[in-house]
Design brief:
Length: about 270
């Protein structure tokens, strides 16, 4: 019997890249998305199930767990999420709540729903996809920073509680190459209009330039990140923490060795806040 992995957020990015890699490795994949039509182009096969799964909807999660009850589920990859960006002064309460509903509460609801299935398989593991921004923070991404710090805390607590039964892997990628303009438009909404006439109008233009440069020069391809995650799925002894990307590694080291005032000065200057 083949092992199976359930992956959330398979419509784009890391989740989409991970699906064919797992299948090539001989695993069955439960590929999920809020709209399963987004997964219609995946090649069919006995090693693939496509499910609708909205991580903010308890009924959707429960239905997906029931649909997987017959599978030898050995891994869960909590990948679904998005980044709400903008100055904290301009972020609406509902935007902050929505960020946590998806990235934090949804992630934990999915974990709790599938833990009973994972416990049935020896060597099962949960992979919680956080970010390098779960260990450090950057300006103009406060909601996303906070949500990923929360994911780190939940993963570390979960490992202490269930780690002897189900391994818990904290995945911390750096920047992933995406469709920059499309991604930014979805995350910002009407934020630029809210910034007009404030000190952040100029800052947001600088932010655009910085993030575009980072995306083009330093971001890794989603498939490269997915291959590292695949390694943690396949290995007999999964790592507790998986840092992916040179930028994630170097940023963590710099923050650890630089005086806090220096670190903050670097970020303020980089994002036009000095």
């Amino acid at each position: 019997m083949r092992n199976w992995v359930l992956i959330t957020g398979c419509s784009t990015g890391i989740g989409r890249a991970l699906v064919p890699l797992c299948r090539e490795a001989g695993w069955g994949v439960v590929a999920t998305a809020r709209d399963p039509a987004a997964l219609a182009d995946l090649p069919p096969g006995e090693d693939l199930r496509i499910l609708a799964l909205d991580v903010t909807d308890a009924a959707s999660i429960a239905s997906a767990a029931v649909a997987c009850a017959d599978l030898p589920l050995k891994a869960l990859v909590n990948n679904a999420g998005y980044g709400q960006v903008g100055p904290l002064e301009l972020i609406r309460p509902e935007e902050l709540r929505a960020q946590f509903e998806t990235n934090v509460i949804g992630l934990q609801m999915v974990t709790n729903a599938f833990l009973p299935l994972l416990r049935r398989e020896a060597g099962a593991r949960v992979l919680q996809v956080a970010s390098m921004l779960g260990r450090l923070s950057i300006p103009l991404a406060g909601p996303y920073n906070a949500s990923k710090h929360a994911v780190v805390a939940l993963a570390e607590s979960l490992r202490l509680e269930v780690g002897r039964e189900v391994a818990v892997v904290l995945v911390e990628p750096g920047a992933i190459r995406t469709e920059f303009r499309e991604t930014l438009a979805r995350a910002w909404g009407d934020l630029p209009a809210r910034a007009l006439g404030t000190r952040y109008e100029r800052v947001l233009k600088k932010y655009l330039a910085v993030r575009k440069d980072q995306s083009e020069r330093h971001a890794m391809e989603a498939e490269a990140c997915a291959r590292r995650i695949l390694g943690a799925i396949l290995t007999e002894r999964p790592p507790r923490r998986l840092v992916i990307g040179k930028d994630a590694f170097l940023a963590g080291k710099l923050k650890a060795i630089l005086p806090p005032a220096w670190w903050e000065a670097i970020l303020r200057r980089a994002y036009g806040l000095d």
